Amino acid sequence: MTESRRDLPQLLGEARRWFEDGLLAALDAGGVPAVTPAQLQLFAALDTDGTTVAELARRTGVTRQTVHQAVGSLVAAGLLEQVPDPASARRRLVRRTPAGRYAHDRARRALARLEAELAARVGEEALRALRTALEAPWGDPPGRH
pTM of the prediction? Predict the structure, then answer.
């Protein structure tokens, strides 16, 4: 007997890929340089005035080295820049360039369209329930202290 019901992590992963695929297609159509899903996550974690690499690593749950590599690629693509942090001479901030701000604005509009499309497909009530469940505090996973 095989179980046909997929587990929740698998479903969440498929949902994330649906959004990423739609977002990447919208960015490509808008002339934004090609980015990876991991770079999208980093790009979305930036504050308007800039964010340190250490903070980006914390927000995205990856190592500083991984963030440095992604930032380097996005700097090379002209979407990000690194500037001195006015609060500390030892730190640098990562922030969006004008092209990066254009890409970010385009991405936000594309995500709004994707959410509207999802609401049309599954219903407004289902989308609200999904958002409510995902925004609720889950706490630490069992067994993790």
Answer: 0.83
